[in-house]
Amino acid sequence: MSAIGSLRVVSEARPCDEDGLRALFLRQPGETAEPGAALFFEGDPACHVFHLISGNVRVCRFLPDGHRFIIGFLCAGDLVGLSFRSRYMFGAEAIDRVAFRRMNKRLFEEELQLAPEHRSQMLSHLRDEITASQDHMLLLSQKNAEERVCTFLLDRLDRTGTPGIVSLPMIRSDIADYLGMTIETVSRTLTKLVLKGIILPAEKHHFRVVSRSALARHANEANENDDHKGEAQRLLR
């Protein structure tokens, strides 16, 4: 399947009001990708950098035995395809309907050379990617099934626009591949968290977090603050 053939250019796309690197894409036409379509495949020539306007994308690699390994999930506002190599080291696939803008890699690099502030933002973005990669390796190597799922939910909670709501637009097999678990274990763990009253089903593909501190404890996240810590500190002033 061709990645280019599965995409459609749209005449109007919702404008992006963000500054910095993302502002470079405002002059590019908006495009959309339907669920399951590839923005690019692993091993494709790295010709473009993409800015996601809406929707969700899974980033994945395939092992020599054909097993899929999901590196992460991206959403509106994220950049994907940043690489100094000649070919993409991973593939990017639309989970749901995705709107995005793409920029020629050479033009993107020229813009970085012209604006020092963009270069520093680029380095900051790459540092964030390295940190996320290290966190993911720690997740897979040191945490048990429940801790992995809870850590994943905490991360999704921080990326959801609605307070206390976790959005899970991806299917269970995507979560399982990302966490290095089976689909059955992911489902059992989510059910267990519901029975414990830590999360509750909300609308489709969403959970409501009843207690962030309890979720953090089950994730073995020692640095997470208690739900009421901020309020207690305010009252003590």
Automatic annotation (TrEMBL):
One of its GO terms (molecular function) is DNA-binding transcription factor activity. PROSITE patterns: CNMP_BINDING_3, HTH_CRP_2. GO terms for cellular component: cytosol. The keyword Nucleotide-binding does not apply. Residues 143-213 form the HTH crp-type domain. Residues 34-81 form the Cyclic nucleotide-binding domain. This is CRP/FNR family transcriptional regulator. It comes from Rhizobium subbaraonis.
